Amino acid sequence: MSRSRTQHTDADSAAILAALGNKYSAEILCAAGTPKSAQALSEDIEIPIATCYRRIEELVDAGLLTCEGRQLSDEGRRTNIYRRTLDEIEIDFSDETPAFSRKRRTEAKNRLQDQLTD
Q1: What are phi and psi of 5, to 5 degrees?
Q2: Domain ranges of the chain
Q3: Is residue 5 packed enough to be buried (19+ CB in 10 Å), middle (13-18) or exposed (0-12)?
Q4: Helices in the chain by DSSP H: which ranges?
């Protein structure tokens, strides 16, 4: 996995900080180490589905969560499947704008983890 330190625009920084600061966001990111639907995340974390969808949208907009595709639910509906895009994030507030150091998830790690959970 690569660790990169990046400067973001004020809008990017604000989106990341806002997304991370919301209740349940960290829990969703922890639970989304493997691909999961919003319904599965909601059930795993025991939060209302509407709240889960709002947090997912914020995390996707901030680039911390990604939609990996779609699958059929138990009810036969197509649902989006989400997975986090990183394993670690560090925020440095020592400059005028926050700097983020990220440990991104590699595709190899995703494939390995998928095989272990099948």
Answers
A1: -110, 120
A2: 3-117
A3: exposed
A4: 10-21, 25-31, 38-45, 49-61, 107-117
Domain 3-117: CATH class, spelled out: mainly alpha
- The residue among 21 and 52 whose pLDDT is bigger is 52
pLDDT per position as a tens digit, 55-103: 999 999 999 999 999 988 777 889 999 999 988 888 888 988 788 876 7
Burial of 107 (0-12, 13-18, 19+ CB in 10 A): exposed
Closest CA to 43 of 24, 59, 58: 24
CB 8 within 8 A of CB 100: yes
Say what the pLDDT of residue 96 is: 83
**Which residues are CB-neighbours of 63 under 8 A, at least 6 positions away?**
12, 15, 16, 85
3-state class (DSSP) for residue 66: strand
Identify whether the C-beta of residue 37 lies closer than 8 Å to the C-beta of residue 44. no
Q: Model confidence at 2, in pLDDT bands (50, 70, 90)?
A: very low
d(CA 37, CA 22): 20
